[in-house]
Design brief:
The protein is of the alpha+beta class and 386 residues long. It has 2 domains: 4-223, P-loop containing nucleotide triphosphate hydrolases (Rossmann fold), CATH 3.40.50.300; 228-374, RNA polymerase II/Efflux pump adaptor protein, barrel-sandwich hybrid domain (OB fold (Dihydrolipoamide Acetyltransferase, E2P), Beta Barrel). Helix content is 26%, strand content 32%. The strands form 4 sheets. Strands 6-7-8-3-9-10 form a 6-stranded mixed beta sheet, with helices on both faces. Strand 4 and strand 5 (65-66) form a beta hairpin. Helix 2 crosses helix 3, helix 2 packs parallel to helix 4 and helix 5 crosses helix 9 (371-385). The longest helix is centred in the middle third of the chain and has 18 residues, at 166-183. The structure holds adenosine-5'-triphosphate and magnesium ion. The site of magnesium ion has 3 residues, from helix 1.
Length: 386
């Protein structure tokens, strides 16, 4: 059982503190995705787990044993980087088998392992080729294959798909999803890609400046971000944030006034709110609709229209100059510079206090997940079943 347990892990380089105390329980077989702004310490954390850097303080346990001072090769971990770092003068077979050979494994054993991994990754026909004779996606699969043959208990992936073009990213993402289902290995995976994070992760960990902001399932983070940072980080386009203040407090909702003077209900826990509090009103682009059909209505001017075919993004300016984005399904007949009404359901509203902390939403469970996310989940599940 390859559980990974991080207890208050800190890391400094010289006198610069990079990780300020990371605690995380990763269960055997779990797929954990680390996200966070550039420089927040994601790669550093992976390198600590792999044993490539020394932990400054705190403890790291793998399968119930502390491994702080155990050599990388003894940790049962394989790491795949963004740059494939294949040996250029070795063919695919040799690249994949090199680590096993160095470890003194027998020829037959090596051959069996490499062929098995190559079949899993659909690169069995490429074993004689040199890296320069491969596409980027094929090279990345060789790098993954090199990790698989070692039978690790834990895979660490550091942005493995970011060198690939868009179509290949999608394909390789699905392959990694399938591979996880097949091998059942614990995976810790760093990405900057929203869709990778939402579709691959059993759990997403959002890091900010060397600390964990929030960890949870993709939908927990989507529906109940605990602060403005996480709310802005999960979801694309980003959640709209509009300044506002509390007008009234009712039993099960707040009445808030936005900076453009429009008024909305918000179904959140009200016990910490006071009348007059400055708040931030959050609403996701996919929860806005054109027209005044829903309970809260705003008036906005269209400043840009992006037609994607399956959806339309409207960039809108409210009466006070606040900029927001709306994602509508399908095409839109709205024109540039038009003054339109948009509306939303108060159940979809997020409220953040003046410190940026979310007030817990009380009706979020009733909201359906967005069509886009459901579709992606379905596609990944379908691909995994094939
Ligand atoms: N060996 C090192 N010596 C000194 N500082 C380092 C070292 N390695 C990383 N850092 C610093 O630690 C911080 C975190 O770096 P890290 O590579 O972990 O970020 P990251 O979250 O992976 O970012 P990105 O998304 O850009 O890959 C950065 O400020 C970086 O400059
Ligand atoms: Mg990094």
């Amino acid at each position: 059982m390859a559980d990974v347990k991080l207890n208050n892990i800190k890391k400094s380089f010289g006198n610069v503190n990079i990780l300020h105390g990371i605690s995380l329980d990763i269960k055997h077989g779990e797929f954990v995705v680390l996200v966070g702004a550039s420089g927040c310490g994601k790669s550093t954390l992976l390198r600590l787990i792999a044993g490539l850097e020394e932990i400054t303080s705190g403890s790291l346990e793998i399968s119930g044993r502390e491994v702080n001072h155990i050599a990388p090769a003894q940790r049962g971990i394989a790491m795949v980087f963004q740059s494939y770092a294949l040996y250029p003068h070795m063919n695919v077979f040799k690249n994949m088998s090199y680590g096993l050979k160095v470890n003194g494994k027998g020829k037959d054993f090596i051959k069996e392992k490499v062929l098995e991994a190559a079949n899993t990754l659909d690169i069995g026909h490429l074993l004689e080729r040199l890296p320069r004779e491969l596409s980027g996606g094929q090279r990345q699969r060789v790098a993954i294959g090199r990790a698989i043959v070692r039978d690790p208990n834990v895979f660490l992936f550091d942005e493995p798909l970011s060198n690939l073009d868009a179509a290949l990213r999608v394909q390789t993402r699905v392959e990694i999803g399938k591979l996880h289902k097949k091998l059942g290995t614990t995976i810790i995976y760093v990405t900057h890609d929203q869709i990778e994070a939402m579709t691959l992760g059993d759990k997403i960990v959002v890091m900010n400046e060397g600390l964990i902001s929030q960890a949870g399932t993709p939908l927990e983070l989507y529906q109940h971000p605990c602060n403005k940072f996480v709310a802005g980080f999960i979801g694309s386009p980003k959640m709209n944030m509009i300044p506002g203040k509390v007008l009234a407090i009712e039993a099960d909702h707040l009445l808030v006034e936005l900076s453009d003077k429009s008024i909305s209900k918000a179904y959140v826990e009200t016990d910490t709110a006071s009348i007059g509090d400055n708040i931030t009103f959050g609403i996701r682009p996919e929860h806005l609709v054109e027209g005044a059909l829903q309970e809260t209505s705003l008036s906005a001017k269209v400043s840009l229209i992006e037609q994607l075919g399956e959806a339309t993004y409207l960039y809108l300016t409210l009466g006070d100059g606040s900029e927001i984005v709306m994602r509508g399904e399908g095409e839109s007949t709205t024109t540039f510079s038009e003054q339109i009404n948009i509306s939303l359901k108060p159940e979809h509203v997020h409220i953040f206090n003046s410190e940026g902390i979310a007030l817990r939403r009380t009706r979020a469970g009733n909201t359906k997940s967005p069509a886009q996310l459901a579709q992606l989940k379905a596609q990944t599940a379908e691909a995994a079943a094939n």
